């Protein structure tokens, strides 16, 4: 909690100056998918520090429970609802339990759960393709659709959807045709939500696209992290150590800030977009990349 606490303290000071004495997200209820670790877990902590009630959703039940317990133990409010975003029944349950936790209200969804399953085009299988599109496009769509009754409301309270994308989606990336298509496609969902639910209901919808953020997705593949597909296949996560080392050795020359970002920095950007400071920003893709690809 130490680095996120200090950043949360600074953000709270800003919130106080701007007349949000109880936090930027006071009284709001947020579902954050994939918040058992990495960027999602940091987002859950920062949101809770800003007064939100946070629903911690992750396929890894133990990690989701730990995150929720840590938030509740630090004076925040969180509920873990574990499950697989590739399971439609789970998505319905997630919305139901979030609405119960929020006394009938849900204000924010962060569609963050995901992983990469890389392959060059001529070797990518149908299963690799279908799984990544299902996880990064179909699942966020189903979650937003299931939560529609809680967003298509007129109660003068803020509502916001944030979909997580990647520089791979904005610019393409060799070896990631499935992920690049999915992360490009999610921007279409973002913009459609902005156009359908902005006019009458005031719902904001934005995409946050990350570059190189330090999580297990960008750690050395040799560390052995993996996810398991619904039919039990193990998918190795990370990038080959040699590839990561050569980027570091070259001083991250493709990134103007010359370093990767931390999960806390990534989460701060999500908080910024969710906050009232972004109340007139909708339908946009915000790149959080240290300047990469400009
Ligand atoms: N790390 C980066 O450099 C980077 C860059 C661009 C985009 N992203 C995106 O950011 C998001 C978060 O990634 P991260 O780096 O924090 O990774 P991470 O692996 O640390 O966290 C992702 C979480 O999602 C969960 N998850 C995966 N599949 C799931 C499923 N089917 N149902 C429910 N939960 C599931 C995992 O259990 C994990 O806890 C992802 O959408 C990723 O594509 C990350």
UniProtKB/TrEMBL annotation:
Q: What is its EC number?
A: 1.1.1.100
Q: Name one Pfam family in it.
A: adh_short
Task: Check the record and name the InterPro entries matching this protein.
Answer: KR_dom, NAD(P)-bd_dom_sf, Sc_DH/Rdtase_CS, SDR, SDR_fam
The residue ranges of the Ketoreductase domain are: 28-203
What UniProt keywords are attached to this protein's entry?
NADP
Q: Which domain of life is it from?
A: Eukaryota
Catalyzed reactions per annotation: a (3R)-hydroxyacyl-[ACP] + NADP(+) = a 3-oxoacyl-[ACP] + NADPH + H(+)
For this entry, the protein name equals 3-oxoacyl-[acyl-carrier-protein] reductase
Q: Which organism is it from?
A: Phyllosticta citribraziliensis
């Amino acid at each position: 909690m130490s680095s996120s606490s200090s950043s949360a303290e600074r953000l709270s000071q800003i919130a106080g100056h701007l007349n949000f004495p109880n936090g930027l997200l006071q009284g709001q209820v947020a579902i954050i998918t994939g918040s058992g670790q990495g960027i999602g877990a940091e987002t859950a902590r920062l949101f809770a520090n800003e007064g939100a009630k946070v629903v911690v959703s992750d396929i890894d039940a133990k990690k989701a429970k730990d995150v929720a317990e840590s938030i509740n133990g630090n004076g925040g409010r969180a509920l873990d609802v574990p499950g697989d975003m590739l399971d439609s029944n789970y998505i319905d349950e997630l919305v139901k339990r979030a609405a119960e936790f929020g006394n009938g209200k849900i204000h924010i969804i962060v569609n963050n759960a995901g992983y990469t399953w890389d392959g060059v085009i001529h070797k990518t299988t149908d299963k690799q393709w279908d799984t990544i599109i299902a996880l990064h496009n179909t699942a966020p769509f189903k979650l937003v659709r299931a939560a529609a009754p809680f967003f298509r409301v007129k109660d003068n309270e803020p509502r916001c959807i944030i979909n997580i994308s990647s520089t791979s989606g904005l610019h393409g990336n060799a070896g990631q045709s499935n992920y690049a298509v999915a992360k490009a496609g999610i921007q279409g969902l973002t913009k459609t939500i902005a156009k359908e639910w902005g006019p009458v209901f005031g719902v904001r919808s934005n995409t946050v696209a990350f570059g190189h953020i330090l999580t297990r997705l960008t750690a050395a593949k040799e560390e052995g992290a993996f996810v398991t597909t619904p039919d039990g296949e193990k998918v190795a996560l990370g990038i080959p150590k040699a590839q990561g080392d050569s980027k570091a050795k070259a001083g991250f020359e493709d990134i103007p800030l010359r370093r990767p970002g931390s999960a806390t920095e990534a989460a701060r950007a999500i908080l910024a977009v969710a906050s009232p400071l972004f109340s007139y920003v909708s339908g946009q893709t915000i790149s959080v990349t240290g300047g990469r690809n400009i």
